[in-house]
Amino acid sequence: MKKLFLILTLGVFSNFLCSCATVMRDNNQAVPIKANVEKVDIRVTNKAGELIYEGQTPTTLTLKTASKSGYFNPEKYTIVASKDGFKTQTSIIDWHVSSWYWAGNLVIGGLIGYLIIDPITGDMYYLDEEVNLNMSPIK
Question: H-helix or E-strand containing 43?
């Protein structure tokens, strides 16, 4: 009987250790990248300057929402787009804080969710949902 009580207590307590954004989101996100002209060459780097992708549009990249160093450290990506006859363009894939983090932790996760679990996992962040590159011709 004591074992059953212990298991049930740990099960209920573990619910409070889960934070809402971690339960509702993953720190990987698919981000489509499109352009107003076909086959634009793109280079995508993270905020540490590491090359993440080199290729052409259209494409969809699966990107991390938090950097490797973790705690309260969202990721940000830079896209450099180029094509013969067009101006080179730089665009940013920026991060945002999920409403699951704010509202969900208020109801479920509490301070542990706000200050520990979601910031460490990076699940509290999401990236711009898509990137549309508007390439301008060189005159």
Answer: strand 41-45
